[in-house]
Amino acid sequence: MATIKATCPMCGDVDLTPRQVRVQVVEALEESHSRRTYAFGCPLCHEDVEKPADAEVVRLLTSAGVHVDRIAVPAEAREEHHGGPIGYDDLLDLVLWLETHDAIAEDMALSHGR
Ligand SMILES: [Zn+2]
Hints:
The longest helix is centred in the C-terminal third of the chain and has 12 residues, at 88-99. The protein is elongated and about 70 Å long. It is an alpha+beta fold. Strand 1 and strand 2 form a beta hairpin. The chain is built from three helices and six strands, in the order E-E-E-E-E-H-E-H-H. Bound molecules: zinc ion. Zinc ion binds at residues 8, 10-11, 42, 44-45, 47. Zinc ion is lined by residues 8, 10-11, 42, 44-45, 47.
């Protein structure tokens, strides 16, 4: 089994097995927004250590047998938003509006065309 050398900020260099290391890759649509980290519990001081990793480190750890957690960021998370979050007043306004409008699709088409 491969031995992985990592550095604990408290203890210095430590030897780990692939099962002691976790790699997490958060894959955004744009490569520059993607985030890669590796983490391990230090076998000496038992502190959790997390460090940034580049694509090459992820490739090396993967080839050594480390499991990679890949998390895809949905496209909706990358959308640009304007205005504040929806509040209770907005929901109440919507409920009141729905009570007086039967043909919602028709009304939405009219307001969208304005
Ligand atoms: Zn340590």
